[in-house]
Specification:
Blueprint (H helix, E strand, L loop, with lengths): L8 E6 L2 E6 L16 E3 L7 H8 L1 H63 L5 H11 L1 H4 L6 E8 L3 H10 L15 E9 L16 H13 L3 E2 L3 E2 L8 E11 L2 E11 H5 L4 H6 L16
Antiparallel strand pairs: 1-2, 2-3, 4-5, 4-9, 6-8, 7-8, 8-9
Length: 294
């Protein structure tokens, strides 16, 4: 049987499927290469119709497939990055919390030392606190702490006598301040180093509710207490801080509180290298991110 000839084309028969190549005369491009002949798909019967359909849409399917693969790889890479970042954040957070706990434990041990000094002698003077502060090297050994002091409760009608005794014992400028209506004044008797805490000497901490309530809780529970966010009177930069107050009892009677003042920013500095290098963080007094409690 003789196949009919087709002008300008060739027909190739194989397995009942016809592939028709049209030869088109096209000019040579600037690179000296003629374009690739176009490929068309014909049909003989219905057996291979889906092959032709697939061939015509193969380029679209490949593009769609590549898009889905790219999106899948991107999503997985992002998920892995987020998991790794979360794990690293958790590790650094735990390191920071542990470092803060260790630092506070050291501060409490220092307050225990001050309480031990008071217990060893009833004739403690301001110079003794200065010697104690210099011995433990507050600046280098206790980063973030502003000093160590002692607060004594003084009945309102005994304040004048108390002030006179303090002046006679070597603190000539001692005065109780500010004026309050409290029946019992909570006066800062000693604080060292005194050069950076001079304005706190003689302060009646009962003038402010947060300080007063923390002192009362410490007295009632027998445990150290932290005040809410306050501004230290001796801090000229007016940065937020707080006090740690530890009750001091002698013969089961409250004699006062050994305490330490802190500036919040100083306390949180250099907790761990990771926190300093990779994160910025803020600390609030309470559960809400309120600028007034920062």
């Amino acid at each position: 049987e003789i196949m009919p000839s087709l002008v300008g084309s060739e027909m190739c028969i194989r397995d009942r499927a016809f592939w028709l190549f049209e030869k088109k005369t096209q000019p040579i491009n600037e690179f000296g290469v003629s374009p690739i002949p176009s490929l068309k798909c014909g049909r003989h019967g219905h057996d291979f119709e889906w092959i032709c359909w697939l061939f015509k849409r193969l380029d679209i399917l490949l593009v769609v497939f590549c898009i889905f693969v790219t999106l899948g790889v991107f999503a997985e890479s992002r998920r892995i990055g987020q998991v790794a970042a979360h794990a690293e954040f958790q590790r650094l957070t735990e390191d920071g919390l542990q470092a803060l706990k260790t630092r506070l434990d050291i501060y409490l041990q220092s307050l225990n030392g001050a309480a031990g000094m008071l217990h060893a002698s009833e004739n403690i003077e301001s110079d003794d606190f200065e010697i104690f502060a210099s011995t433990i090297d507050i600046k280098n050994s206790l980063p973030g702490i502003n000093g160590i002091g002692f607060i004594e409760p003084v009945p309102k009608d005994e304040v004048a006598e108390f002030v006179a005794k303090m002046r006679a014992d070597g603190t000539p400028d001692f005065s109780a301040h500010p004026e309050t209506d409290s029946d019992v004044k909570y006066l800062i008797k000693y604080i060292a180093p005194v050069d950076i805490n001079a304005q706190a000497v003689g302060l009646d901490i009962s003038f402010e509710e947060g300080r007063r309530e923390a002192a009362n809780r410490a007295r009632e529970t027998g445990l150290p207490q932290i005040t809410p966010r306050i501004l230290l009177v001796q801090d000229e930069t007016a940065q937020p801080g707080f006090l740690i107050l530890k009750p001091y009892f002698r013969d089961e009677e409250l004699r006062g509180w050994v305490y330490a003042p802190f500036i919040g920013r100083n306390l949180m500095e250099n907790l761990s290298p990771g926190l300093e290098n990779y994160f910025d963080f803020q600390v609030y007094d309470g559960n809400a991110a309120n600028p007034d409690t920062l």
